[in-house]
Here is the input.
Amino acid sequence: MNEAYVKYDIKDGIGWIEFYHPAHNSLPAALLSELTLTIERAGMDSAVRVIILKSGGERTFCAGASFNELVAIHDEDSGKAFFAGFANVINAMRKCPKLIIGRVQGKAVGGGVGLASATDYCMATKYASIKLSELHVGIGPFVVGPAVERKLGISGMSQIAIDANSFYSAEWALRKGLYAKVYDNTDELDEAILNFAKELCNYNVEAMRELKAMFWSGTEHWDQLLSDRAAISGRLVLSDFTKETLKRFKK
Here is the structure.
C-alpha cells in the first residue's frame, strides 16, 4: 500500500472507518480533513449503529502529525490551520452521536494518542505502546491534551507529556484507562472488537446516544479550547528550537 486513504464501509449496522498513510499512518492535513468528514458522515448515517475506528497496516496505529507538513509550516496562520486538523477530528469524534470503538493494533504517537483517547471505548494489542513526543521537538501536546487528560487523568497525562521521549506500554495505558482491554495479537483483537460491536448493535440506539452525551458532558467548550490550543502549537512550531530540531530529524 503506497497511497494514503480514508475508507468507510457499513456492514450489519457497524460503520468501519479506516485511515492509512505509508509514513507510519501519520496524518497530513488532507487526511485529517477527510477523516473529520467521514466521522461526521457516519454519525449521521441511519444505517450505522456503532462505529469502529482503525488504521491500515499491521504495525503503527498512528504516528501523529505529518513530519513533512510540520517542516513546511511558514507562519502562525498556517501552523494553526494544520494543528486545527487534529482539533477537528477530535471534536467530530466528541460530537458524533454514535459510540466509537477504537482499534489500536500498534504504537500510537502524539496525535495518534489523541485519536485513541477520543474514542468512547478503546481496545488494543500488547504492542500498542504510546508516546506524547511533542515536547521533545519543542511544541507540546496542546490540541490532544484535553482528550488525553480526560482518559488518563492529569497525573497520567503530565507523566507522558513531560517524559516526551519514552514509550509507555499498552499495559500501562490499560491500567490508566486509555485501553479497556489488551490482547496478545491482532487476530484476538479483531475477533473481540467485532463481537463487541455486534453486541452493541443489539442495544437501544437512543440509549447509546444519551449515554455518550452524558460521558462527554462538560466538553461543550472544546471547539474554542482546541482552536486556541492549535494557535499555541502553530506559534511554537515556528520557534528557533523547533525549527532546528526538525532540521536535525530531517537529516
In short: The two ends are 25 Å apart (CA to CA). The longest strand covers residues 5-11. The mean pLDDT is 96.
